[in-house]
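Q: what does this look like with adenosine-5'-diphosphate bound?
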Amino acid sequence: MPLDWSYFRPELIHAIEQTLLMVGVGLLISLIIGIPLGIVLVVTRENGILQNKFIFSVLSVIVNIFRSIPFIILIVAIIPFTRFIIGTSIGTVAAIVPLVIFTAPYIGRLIENSLLEVDSGVIELAQAMGANPWQIIWRFLLPEALSSIILAVTIATIGLIGASAMAGAVGGGGLGDLAIVYGYQQFQTEVMIITVILLVIFVQLIQSIGNLLAKKIRRK
Amino acid sequence: MLVLKDIHKVYGKDKKRVEALKGINLEVGKGEIFGVIGFSGAGKSTLIRCVNLLERPTSGQVLINNVDMQKLPPRHLRKERKKIGMIFQQFNLLNAKTVFKNVAMPLIIDGRPKQEIEKKVNELLSFVGLSDKAKQYPEQLSGGQKQRVGIARALATDPHILLCDEATSALDPDTTQSILELLKKVRNELGITILIITHEMNVIRDICDKVAVIDGGVIVEQGSVLDVFSEPKKEITKNFVRTILNDEIPPTIKTFIKTKHQHSDSHYMYRVLFKGASANNPLLSNIAKQFPVDVNVIHGTITELQGIPFGNLIIELQGKPEDIKQALAFIKQQEVIVKEVDIHAT
Ligand SMILES: Nc1ncnc2c1ncn2[C@@H]1O[C@H](COP(=O)(O)OP(=O)(O)O)[C@@H](O)[C@H]1O
Ligand SMILES: [Mg+2]
């Protein structure tokens, strides 16, 4: 069956929009949750600048729990929660909820790792200068880790693109959905190939931008 | 200025317990350059980090200008820390920031206005001789230049004391020398008190007024550099002094003397230490002129300690015992230190 482009093109564009929406909004919210999460994990740990064993342990366990649930199960498991927040558990917007719950803890861990890479001498320096904890985080830790954080976010974004394709398959729309509905269920191989190529280009683009930014910032 | 009273510091507990400091007492006067020397693991870093409370002493008092540092609430402690500069062995520069920004950091943290920061940083960069490097990043600098940035940064908030943790240990000898000169300039021109810890005796020799020797968390000896260098009491101190004042009698000379004196049990060998003005006195020729004894210089070094010549001679006196006794009495009247050397023991 030849591909009917006049019908397919708007479908494709719509799918791209949905994917961009899921990845863009999903990433934004995940960063808003994940970055503070990573920071808190670093400062509250043992010998951290705001050591707090309780907060650290609780957050760490929560992160581990979410990190260990496969995404496809997570989507189903949190349907009641998604419905509670969005009002429905189906559609592109609803898919953002599991995407965030999947990505935010991941970003938290990645940011935590990036911050831990910062030389302990930097924190010592900041303390010797009389910086308060807030200044230590904003003026010293984050700027020194920025290049590594950008690479971490790049990795998380790519993971998010993959997850969004999966979310598409269970009603979120987007490129993943397109590939399944047309390519798999209707045997339109061209559609499958086009979506795969688009996803590959998308991933490549994100990785290149991330590398470029990180390189620009890195001074070592 | 800075007083440490009976500082103890214990790390870990039970099996992992390490007592890094075991009752440190120190007093650093205003405008002094005070050196603490010791081997690796002696507790030097712990000691200097206790001064600005990067490390909290387990017990004891840290007084800076009569302020009990440990009694300060966090906000006041941060304020006091701004008056204490610190430089590090590994420089601890911020790699993502330019030299200018690195030096500006303490002022930014302190919330100073932009123009003031600009002016101050430029002054500091010119003071340390790096005006042309303001826009560069740390990766583009040599070790010595990095430490200059560290020093400029430490001076930004006009501290009254500068703490140096092995500030030259990562540098080659020439660079070390230039950084030491800069530290001297910091004291001489800005009047800033300096506490420096090191394992290198040449640092003590070249810039310190006072020295304390730390071993196993205990200060085993302290005093003016001149006194400690001329009369080290503890074995560890003697070894440190020996690393730069080579007062060992060379083995060939030793065997020569030993064979020479094989059959006599009285040999008149003395170590004479000259300090300051006495090094300029023609002491030895005076002895030879005034007493019927011969003076034979066996070994000698003259070093400069802070612009003061410091001599260390091993001489042999030949003559009748009573003449030698008189000559010795004469030497002892001078501003020198004389000690008999037992050649068989050394
Ligand atoms: N944070 C720490 N935790 C446990 N032990 C430490 C710590 N810092 C230093 N020590 C121990 O304290 C002793 C003194 O260390 P340090 O002050 O670094 O000596 P130095 O600077 O003279 O080499 C050493 O035995 C070291 O292992
Ligand atoms: Mg040390």
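The pocket of adenosine-5'-diphosphate (ligand 1) is lined by residues B 11-12, 18, 20, 38, 40-46 (CB under 6 Å). Chain A has nine helices and no strands.
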